[in-house]
Design a protein that fits this description.
This protein folds into three domains: 1-147 and 298-307, no CATH class; 151-277, 60s Ribosomal Protein L30, Chain: A (2-Layer Sandwich); 314-491, fumarase (Alpha-Beta Barrel), CATH 3.20.130. Helix content is 33%, strand content 24%. The protein has helices at residues 6-22, 26-38, 42-61, 90-102, 151-154, 168-175, 197-207, 214-220, 225-238, 323-326, 346-357, 399-408, 422-431, 443-447, 487-504, and strands at residues 2-5, 71-79, 82-85, 114-115, 122-123, 131-137, 142-149, 158-162, 187-194, 253-261, 268-275, 281-286, 314-317, 334-343, 372-374, 413-416, 434-437, 450-457, 466-480. The radius of gyration is 23 Å and the shape is globular.
Length: 505
Amino acid sequence: MTVIKQQDLIESVAGALQFISYYHPLDFIQAIHEAYQREESQAAKDALAQILVNSRMCAEGHRPICQDTGIVTIFLKIGMQVSWDTEMSVDEMINQGVRQAYQLPDNMLRASILADPAGTRQNTGDNTPAVIHMQIVPGDKVQIHLAAKGGGSEAKSRFVMLNPSDSIVDWVEKTVPTMGAGWCPPGILGIGIGGTAEKAMILAKESLLDTIDIQELKAKGPSNKIEELRLEIFDKVNQLGIGAQGLGGLTTVLDVKIKDYPTHAANLPVAMIPNCAATRHTHITLDGSGPVYQTPPELDDWPAISWNAGKGARRVNLDSITHDEIADWKPGETLLLSGKLLTGRDAAHKRIADLLSKGESLPAGVDFTNRFIYYVGPVDAVANEVVGPAGPTTATRMDKFTDMMLEKTGLIGMVGKAERGPAALESIKRHKAVYLTAVGGAAYLVSKAITHSQVVAFAELGMEAIHEFEVKDMPVTVAVDTNGISVHQTGPAQWKEIILKRKTA
């Protein structure tokens, strides 16, 4: 009988979570590189280049791929011949591993987990608890699949209870555009079919742990209905033209994964969960011989890709910016930002709204007049860093605050990721403001443009506090101009038409 020691499980989980925080799976890197080589949309190709450069930087520097270091999900299979040498429960051991991983001084990971989610929403401080799915199976080993799932992609999860005669492909094709770009495409779609509502969601999540192999499947051809569905959905989704970061392009998904389970005759449950450009997962097996450590990949496995803004990039001084200057910016244009900008996410916006509704002033040091706000919750700095990885969060979550911010604070511009909704677009147009995007999945690269950082308000909110960043040549794209024209609408529409014409030619 195999004996698994308490510390062996804890160390194995902690090491694996650290490992996936800075090493992309190599199959993902290869798939992104293939997409980069095929891409014809310059905006999408630029985004893919930043993702690849960021990935190599993280592998070299052992720092997080994305500032959102995820909610930990564990699929645990415990052999029936395993016994435990421990004073803790399995859940407690897993969570101790998570705690150690996320609080490692050499590579601090962001604590994003909030207790009392419908009430006080207090940060647990160490990213626990993990979401754990446990099975008892034949054998004498413990198999663990670990993933760290970002909130932006998790927020785009979808579920439907179709009629048995309905088309799964039609539902996916109709639903993916409603997910917007907050899941940071290109990524992977995990689909669960069958079982019950909760089973379908678990199947979809578990499918995301499989190796990317859609190109091999295309080459050999399908051998069953599930493989036929994968190929059909893969083609239909990429024909939507959504592209990298939702800017329009040839590649929206790198693979489609499907798991199924028997279901009731009256039901067809279907779940869909996307994985983003910060795909993070690995597999470990404990056999009683001690802790399991990951084998680092060779840096030569990363493609030799460089990124620069190009000759057409416009340099912008944020410290002297005016409404007249931003009126000239065009959707899709690349900017390099320098100067000071304030940060703020959901919790900070809620605090600001509460203060303004009471007729109170904003905290000292928070003046948005003719300034830009960056939607970000950075990772804590380590060693001599100014700030840890600091990529953008999904801007649509701030849409309900946009009119208030533009009307009452003097704000003239915002930086985030993904599209803005109709109300935000109308407000941006009415106030002659702009919205810019940074690349989701390039957080470490973005952080290198930040030359100074200090918390100026709401320090108790942790990563959601308001910081003031000073940046130098921070790369962004004009996503919405002062006329309310959105590249997230024009780009995909243009590329969907291009792809359709090629298909019918």
